[in-house]
Amino acid sequence: MSGYQSVLKEGLFEGKTIIVTGGGSGIGRCTAHELASLGAHVALVGRKIEKLEAVKAEIEEDGGSAEAHACDIRDEDAVKTCVKAIKQNNPAIHGLVNNAGGQFPSPLTGINQKGWETVVRTNLTGGFLMAKEVYLASMSKHGGSIVNIVADMWGGMPNMGHSGAAR
Predict the structure, then answer these.
(1) Closest Cα partner for 125 from 167, 68, 84?
(2) How many CA atoms does the CB half-sphere of 6 hold within 13 Å?
């Protein structure tokens, strides 16, 4: 990110640990880079460790600090294990960006129950599980902030009825 300059104050998140779910691509990847550029130690969480390790390497190459954790946020035991590992590496978790989400373009008539439940478990249950575990592990004692990334479905989401309903 040569020449990149954030609109936010330099060092704003210095000394803070912030988890970013879905940190291996898209909005999560960009958010993780931004937070790291502002001094945060970023804990990248996602299902594919290869993608997370690539983003971690990018952040470190730019002088930032990150760690990578493979986790399916739809699985309560996996979330508990993941948050525990992050907490073991860091004195406190100061922030959570609940960014992980999933959908697939299809009219509602083309979605079966398994597809519907997968989207709901990712977009709703996963965010809930992450928020609960981060709160229990750290924020209940130290405070912190949770940001939930959601789809802008107010103008309609053709062929994305499952996402609009889930969010």
Answers:
(1) 167
(2) 16
- Residues facing 65 on adjacent strands: 41
| Number of other residues whose CB lies within 10 A of the CB of residue 91 | 10
Structural domains counted in the chain: 1
Global pTM exceeds 0.90: no
Nearest Cα residue to 63 out of 44, 43, 41, 46: 41
Q: What is the pLDDT along the chain (167 residues), one digit of tens a residue?
A: 456 677 888 888 999 999 999 999 999 999 999 999 999 999 999 999 999 999 999 999 999 999 999 999 999 999 999 999 999 999 999 999 999 987 767 777 888 888 888 888 888 899 999 999 999 999 999 999 999 988 665 555 556 555 555 54
For 27, what's the count of Cα atoms within 13 Å in the CB-facing half-sphere? 12
Question: Domain of 83: which CATH number?
Answer: 3.40.50.720
